[in-house]
UniProtKB/TrEMBL annotation:
<dbReference type="GO" id="GO:0009055">
    <property type="term" value="F:electron transfer activity"/>
</dbReference>
<dbReference type="InterPro" id="IPR012255">
    <property type="entry name" value="ETF_b"/>
</dbReference>
<dbReference type="GO" id="GO:0046395">
    <property type="term" value="P:carboxylic acid catabolic process"/>
</dbReference>
<keyword id="KW-0249">Electron transport</keyword>
<comment type="subunit">
    <text>Heterodimer of an alpha and a beta subunit.</text>
</comment>
<protein>
    <recommendedName>
        <fullName>Electron transfer flavoprotein subunit beta</fullName>
    </recommendedName>
</protein>
<feature type="domain" description="Electron transfer flavoprotein alpha/beta-subunit N-terminal">
    <location>
        <begin position="23"/>
        <end position="211"/>
    </location>
</feature>
<dbReference type="InterPro" id="IPR014730">
    <property type="entry name" value="ETF_a/b_N"/>
</dbReference>
<comment type="similarity">
    <text>Belongs to the ETF beta-subunit/FixA family.</text>
</comment>
<dbReference type="Pfam" id="PF01012">
    <property type="entry name" value="ETF"/>
</dbReference>
<comment type="function">
    <text>The electron transfer flavoprotein serves as a specific electron acceptor for other dehydrogenases. It transfers the electrons to the main respiratory chain via ETF-ubiquinone oxidoreductase (ETF dehydrogenase).</text>
</comment>
<keyword id="KW-0813">Transport</keyword>
<dbReference type="InterPro" id="IPR014729">
    <property type="entry name" value="Rossmann-like_a/b/a_fold"/>
</dbReference>
<dbReference type="InterPro" id="IPR033948">
    <property type="entry name" value="ETF_beta_N"/>
</dbReference>
Length: 249
């Protein structure tokens, strides 16, 4: 069974992002980039399924500038077998990403596509759902457990009220939530081996997809600074302040 995993290059989650001075976007100069954490979880899940003998091949796909090869190489070091880079310098939005992934799905015919539930840069939480809609594949989003049996996959989903278990016919789209697994670190020998694994490059034009943005970002600004809190001496003072200053009771 072949699995496709979508990995996005994003600003490392440890970095405190800053908007550009003209407010047109986030300043990416000299900023550490990494695989989106939910995509790391997606790779890990595919690798675990391969270790269990369920999956035979893992293909890591990334859409973005040439440097996104770095994140594909990381995915290869973590256990993916080969990579595909859809190279573009345009900032591609979720619908176009989903269309590109659909084109790759049509070429590769995987039984399952695993994506992160969201990318931590745009927080869109759209691509997996759009891909499922465009391809007609079943979808199990926010997965905290994935069990493949024959021609179906049972996905435990994290929903507001607890967990929901759905059984999907393959091929299916699965998006990962935090509790699905804890990704491993790439070992040095695997990082070296990853350099020799195959990585194909194609363009949106090759796949016949128009990636022109449909949404314009008007302004990016940091959230308002929070005011410092105060300490109160006792409950009486707290009640007094809530009543007379905050006027909430
Ligand atoms: P989003 O809908 O933007 O929050 O992204 C959800 C998931 O879609 C990510 O975790 C990735 O698995 C996938 N994805 C989004 N953008 C890209 C991209 N440029 N390249 C590869 N995968 C992507």
């Amino acid at each position: 069974m072949k699995v496709l995993v979508a990995v996005k290059r994003v600003v490392d989650y440890n970095v405190k992002v800053r908007p550009k001075s003209d407010g047109t976007g986030v300043d990416l100069n000299n900023v550490k980039m990494a695989i989106n954490p939910f995509c790391e979880i997606a790779i890990e899940e595919a690798v675990r399924l391969k270790e269990k003998g369920v999956v035979t091949e893992i293909v890591a796909v990334s859409i973005g500038p040439k440097v996104s090869q770095e994140q594909i190489r990381t995915a290869l070091a973590l256990g993916a077998d080969r990579g595909i880079l859809v190279e573009t310098d345009v900032e591609v939005q979720p619908l176009a990403i989903a269309k590109l992934l659909k084109a790759v799905v049509e070429k590769e015919e995987p039984k399952m596509v695993i994506l992160g539930k969201q990318a931590i840069d745009g927080d869109n939480n759209q691509t997996g759902q759009m891909l499922a809609a465009l391809t007609g594949m079943s979808q199990g989003t926010f997965a905290s457990e994935v069990v493949v049996e024959g021609d179906s996959v049972t996905v435990t989903r994290e929903v507001d009220s607890g967990s929901q278990v759905v059984k999907l016919a393959l091929p299916a789209v699965v998006t990962t939530d935090l509790r699905l697994n804890e990704p491993r670190y790439a070992s040095l020998p695997n990082i070296m081996k990853a350099k020799k694994k195959p990585l194909d490059t194609m363009t949106p034009e090759d796949l016949g997809v128009d990636v022109t943005p449909r949404v314009t970002t008007l302004k990016v600004e940091p959230p308002a600074e929070r005011q410092a809190g105060i300490k109160v001496a006792d409950v009486a003072e707290l009640v007094e302040k809530l009543k007379n200053e905050a006027k909430v009771i």
